[in-house]
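FORM 7B: Structural annotation worksheet

SECTION A. Query
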Amino acid sequence: MHRFRVALIDDHEIVARGFAGLFATLPEIEVVATVATVAELLAEVGETSVDLVILDLRLSDGSTVTGNVDRLRATGAAVLAFTGGDDAGLMRAAARSGVLGVVRKSEPTDVLLDAVTRAAAGDTIASTEWAAALDGDPDLSDAGLSPREREVLSLYAAGAKAPLVASHTGLSELTVVDYIRRVRSKYERVGRPANTKIDLYKRALEDGILPVPGRS
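SECTION B. Predicted structure
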């Protein structure tokens, strides 16, 4: 069985201890570090050995969310935001920086276990808190997608491959690929990169093109 290497950055010792104990119960997760800062993590485990970092958005070392996420993603690690959920600005900053999602510290154990396991495997973790923060984000520039581009994006970002999107829309497969290229270009122009399918999924969630799972 492949084991995902996971680290927690949180400057509350009791949270760190509880986290390590909780995830010791999952055979597919190996907790390699519980530290208080990004710098401490990089010094302890190096820059290439962690699959997923669970990052507390409010650290006491003066660091910023954007700076922390950028440093972690530069090592190749994915990042899952871990928060009390009381600051929409922090969650917006995290979303813009490319985290896989936001998980509240108050979530039930089974929800947290599921979110971390899925994030370690590279899945986006959509939540109502994340969506609510993004709904009020004044800095999410409109990419100006056409109705047809939004339709193609909704299918493609939800998991359909180009041939299936073509079948649903009546377009040729080459035209679908061209639409996706244009969608990526439009998001790039407004500073919201969508280089991967996961990025496209995030952009679709942010713009209300796809519904957030579990949100009524």
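SECTION C. Observations
The beta strands are 4-9, 29-35, 52-56, 78-83, 102-104. The chain has ten helices and five strands.

SECTION D. Sign-off
Analyst initials: ____
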